[in-house]
Amino acid sequence: MEPRIQYARTSDGVNIAFFVIGVGPPLVVGPPTPWTHLAMEWKDPGYRAWDERLARSFCVIRYDSRGSGLSDRDPPDGSVEAQTADIAAIAAKLGLERFALLGPAGGASTAVAYAALNPERVTDLVLWCPYSRDDFSDRDRALLNLAESDWSLFLETGAHATGASYTGGEDAVRFAELMREAYSRESYLKHLVRQASAKDVEYRAAVRCPTLILHRRDARRPTAEAIRGIAATILTAELVLVEGASTIPYIGDFETAAWVVYQFLRAPSTQKEPAVESARAPATLQTILFTDIEGSTVLTDRLGDAAAREVLREHERTTREALKAHGGSEVKTMGDGFMASFGSATKALECAIAIQNAFAVPDTDVGAQHTPKTDVASDTNGPALADAGTESARAAPLP
Question: What is the pTM of this model?
Fold first, then answer.
């Protein structure tokens, strides 16, 4: 069943389309400006899966920004300040006093500006693969020229440039069609000109709510280096890199991304405060640990189902005890393995060693022959924590 499209009217008279799905704490999800169209996105299996995944934990409010999708086209003002009025109108319509805010891609600047201008409203800020409005490159100028000369070719090129082509041609074709319906050429050209002149560094510096910056490690643009630069200008920022190349959230492993968002938003606010009180407090380092029992299929064949299940129960008990002792958080179990997170790479390694040592003690020949394999994933590239104020974590594939 399609969600009901509603409208909120902004202070400058623009009608903003939005829908609400899910039950839980309110999460306003901004559009990846300018390409957004609520009705078409809901019909896309990928977009819908991403929305529904978030809605399992939150009351998700999605909207089309002014000038795009089902909202009013050709608004009188398309500046980042004017776009914050879109969020304000929806919050007023729904009676939201305080809420979390998720700003994806180009829409991140609007989310940042709203959070900076309305600190009493925003509980938490999540930025997905954020673009900086002060990063208007030669590539953008080339796209501007292409959009002016050949709109159809621009749409095809733009769909691939966003990363929609990483899983095959169908994603790129669907995204190109969404781009065609979401924005007119004239509106897009105005958008690019505004982006070239807009600056949002001052808004980033003014954000005071807990902030998660979530980015795909191998994205072509913005690069991980550019994202670190953005994170370094937000005092409360925590940067997490997940595997993948597309800046479209539903393409690739969106389960890990959704889980990171869930963990961040549901954590008590005291756990998100910088560990060091300084003008540039470092963000939290996130580390993911996986465990897996090698030879579990052979083990079941040799011992039988009942005895093998007993070994698995012992594995689960020992692993959970080790996680508790070393400050780890269980994410989920996957057959004969665990996925867990740590705020410290050292603690994650100590936990992995403790798990392996526990099963290396030959209480039985079963434990000696089928010890779990552990994989700890944490990024060590880039500037030092004290310098950048951020660093990253990645979800490594199970071995």
Answer: 0.65
